[in-house]
């Protein structure tokens, strides 16, 4: 099992010495490799113990280890396995070693020796503990951008493709006439509802798929059951996906991967984005939002060529300002007529002065607690940290509603999805339901969330896909229960069961999934 541990480069005579790594997870673990424009890479680490970490001043954390082998042993004392030198990464600040912790064969409790790439013969484990936790898991961390004043962006509102003309009787300059006694009414739905056409983008609640590309039967890194085309056909209009570089950061093409490409690799980002673009080609009256997770905190210039390769940039929305206040957003019909029907965010390291369309998430939106474990789902701001309440009221916000539970494996407490409670979590009403949480958010903030971000959206109660009914309720529109849902699913109604969670994924749950 590959956990990454970092230490200062040791003397050559000390490199062969093995230090133990704790089951408690107090060691410094290499989370991923950050890639720079010059091609160099640098480890970014999972913040597992604040006292063991130093801040580089930009929100990234680096392990404070010394060259003393005794000191390393003090931090990395335990019985879970042994650490050995894996590889050295050199960059401008000096040389660091990534250490690789492996479970020794037969060590402790008769546990298995496993790797991410050899999971077919593993035993599977499941956990359903649902009591209120004593702690909340920490969210991913990274540099947050803030702006003292509003910036006017160049190239804003310029359409990159021909706009769409509405059918029916939408009132526009093209079909408006002063001879009628009353203005004609639009009969063409926008995002499945006529009422949405004249609403601002910032005044609509969308159903979102947490980790949309991660659809793989039997893989516990999956968060959805059906592919992105089915998701969009069913009415999902917010798609979130995490970008990683394969080969532990050494790959040259960014992929959508679940924390590590060894766990779940959904392929090059342009493939999935290309599927979304093809769907958008065929649905001219829909606006789709895509949130890209910058899992390596890489410069956006490294992603842009691959995003452009998908063809989706011809539809991207170019905002006029940075940051965008709620009142600054256009209506859906305005976005549709301009042909700008894809709103694209990057969570960290966005550069909107260079790429106005690749919007910085956390200067214009906030999120409720990440990896929630509390079934009451408090509607509080977690990211960006320390955001004043008045500022939060003037931003979009995402309600994370994918319940997790703490699960104990060989004495190690980890997080796994609470799949046995999906019908409840994605339900319209009742304790822990997405409908109740959305109403609570509306009561707390005076407006409904912009996104209900869920796992396995096609489960729920009283019927499959109930999350759409919950969204319709806070949007004050009617959901058509006869709409087809989850056509790619073999069993859209969750029975009393637990989704199998592989040992390999359980053990990497200590690495944050976003």
UniProtKB/TrEMBL annotation:
<keyword id="KW-1133">Transmembrane helix</keyword>
<dbReference type="GO" id="GO:0008081">
    <property type="term" value="F:phosphoric diester hydrolase activity"/>
</dbReference>
<keyword id="KW-0472">Membrane</keyword>
<protein>
    <recommendedName>
        <fullName>PLC-like phosphodiesterase</fullName>
    </recommendedName>
</protein>
<dbReference type="InterPro" id="IPR051057">
    <property type="entry name" value="PI-PLC_domain"/>
</dbReference>
<keyword id="KW-0812">Transmembrane</keyword>
<dbReference type="Pfam" id="PF26146">
    <property type="entry name" value="PI-PLC_X"/>
</dbReference>
<feature type="signal peptide">
    <location>
        <begin position="1"/>
        <end position="16"/>
    </location>
</feature>
<keyword id="KW-0732">Signal</keyword>
<dbReference type="GO" id="GO:0006629">
    <property type="term" value="P:lipid metabolic process"/>
</dbReference>
<dbReference type="InterPro" id="IPR017946">
    <property type="entry name" value="PLC-like_Pdiesterase_TIM-brl"/>
</dbReference>
<feature type="transmembrane region" description="Helical">
    <location>
        <begin position="494"/>
        <end position="513"/>
    </location>
</feature>
């Amino acid at each position: 099992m590959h956990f990454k541990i970092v230490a200062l480069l040791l003397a050559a005579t000390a490199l062969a010495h093995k230090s133990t790594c704790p089951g408690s997870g107090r060691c410094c673990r290499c989370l991923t490799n950050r890639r720079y424009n010059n091609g160099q890479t640098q480890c970014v680490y999972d913040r597992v113990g604040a006292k063991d970490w130093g801040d580089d001043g930009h929100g990234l954390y680096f392990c404070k280890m010394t060259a003393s082998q005794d000191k390393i042993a003090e931090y990395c004392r335990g019985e879970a396995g042994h650490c050995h030198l894996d590889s050295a990464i050199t960059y401008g600040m000096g040389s660091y070693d990534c250490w690789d912790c492996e479970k020794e064969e037969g060590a402790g409790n008769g546990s298995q020796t496993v790797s991410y790439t050899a999971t077919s013969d593993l035993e599977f484990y499941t956990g359903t503990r649902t009591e209120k936790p004593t702690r909340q898991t920490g969210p991913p961390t990274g540099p947050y951008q803030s702006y003292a004043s509003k910036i006017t962006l160049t190239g804003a509102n310029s359409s990159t493709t021909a706009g769409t003309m509405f059918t029916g009787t939408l009132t526009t300059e093209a079909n408006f006439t002063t001879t009628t006694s009353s203005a004609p009414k639009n009969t063409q739905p926008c995002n499945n509802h006529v009422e949405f056409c004249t609403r601002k983008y910032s005044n609509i609640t969308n159903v979102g798929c947490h980790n949309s590309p991660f659809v793989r039967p039997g893989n516990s890194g999956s968060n959805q059951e059906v592919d992105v085309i089915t998701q969009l056909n069913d009415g999902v209009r917010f798609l979130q996906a995490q970008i990683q570089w394969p080969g532990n950061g050494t790959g040259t093409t960014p992929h959508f991967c679940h924390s590590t490409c060894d766990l779940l690799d959904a392929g090059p980002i342009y493939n999935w984005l290309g599927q979304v673009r093809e769907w958008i080609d065929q649905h001219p009256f829909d606006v789709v939002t895509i949130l890209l997770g910058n899992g390596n905190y890489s410069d956006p210039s490294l992603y842009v060529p691959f995003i452009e390769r998908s063809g989706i940039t011809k539809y991207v929305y170019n905002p006029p300002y940075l940051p965008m206040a709620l009142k600054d957003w256009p209506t859906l019909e305005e976005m549709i007529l301009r042909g700008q029907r894809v709103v694209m965010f990057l969570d960290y390291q966005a550069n909107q002065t260079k790429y106005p369309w690749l919007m910085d998430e956390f200067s214009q939106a906030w999120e409720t607690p990440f990896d929630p474990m509390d079934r009451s789902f408090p509607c509080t701001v977690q990211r960006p940290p320390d955001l004043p309440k008045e500022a939060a009221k003037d931003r979009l916000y995402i309600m994370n509603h994918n319940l997790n539970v703490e699960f104990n494996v060989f004495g190690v407490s980890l997080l796994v999805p609470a799949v046995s409670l999906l019908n409840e979590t994605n339900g319209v009403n009742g304790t822990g339901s997405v409908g109740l949480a959305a109403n609570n958010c509306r009561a707390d903030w005076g407006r409904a969330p912009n996104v209900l971000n869920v796992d396995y959206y096609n489960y729920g109660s009283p019927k499959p896909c109930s999350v759409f009914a919950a969204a319709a309720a806070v949007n004050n529109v009617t959901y058509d229960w006869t709409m087809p849902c989850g056509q790619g699913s073999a069993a859209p109604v969750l029975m009393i069961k637990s989704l199998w969670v592989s040992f390999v994924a359980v053990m990497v749950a200590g690495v944050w999934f976003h």
